[in-house]
Amino acid sequence: MEVTREALEGYFPRGNVAARLMPLPDYRCIYVKNTKGATSSILLWMHRIHTHDYDFTVCNIHRHHALPRLEDLGWNAVTRMLSGEAFRFTFVRHPIPRVESAYLDKIVRHENDRWRRKIRQALGLPKDHDQQLTFDQFVAALEAQEPIRMDSHWRPQHFNLMHPLIEYDLVGRLETFDADLARIREATGLPDAPVPIRNRTKRNGSLFDGRPGLLDKVRNIYATDFELYGY
How many domains does the chain contain in total? Predict the structure, then answer.
């Protein structure tokens, strides 16, 4: 399938497609970011490969990396890569822990209020609302939003990955990360650089424990992800 600049820019109502595309032309591969799907780990891994600095680390790899950008290569080169001239890969994650992670990371713990403002707006709450947003409120806000217009941290993954516009050679899973990364290395010739696991939080139990009704709501919101990625 031929992927065009016009199709990419027209996919999202608010644009910003370029930030999602991470090409490595020296290895003829391109990664499409899926927020809350190991993006920090993958970007740091790719940066280390690209710079040959296997010890490099940084707090925010999304802002501070040396990977080629779309504006460096040009639209024609990147769209050819997405159309099949390069190995196209990405990673997905089980929708249930992904939405839990989005809530805990961006709504509960994060110092920046901009994600909470998005949820308050979806719920019709005043901007100066200072009470903690509950998980029930978060799910209610997800139900109230048009999926394509959601923030990428909780937007359904098939939209983040621009399905069906982009055809992938490999869609890895966070749950089988190491094995799938090995498959990518084998297919592309990428070196066996160390892969740091970033932003992994262990916790006991689930926000859905004893709440089957809430779980059903989230399964409905992400029904297409469950179907497409076999969860």
Answer: 1
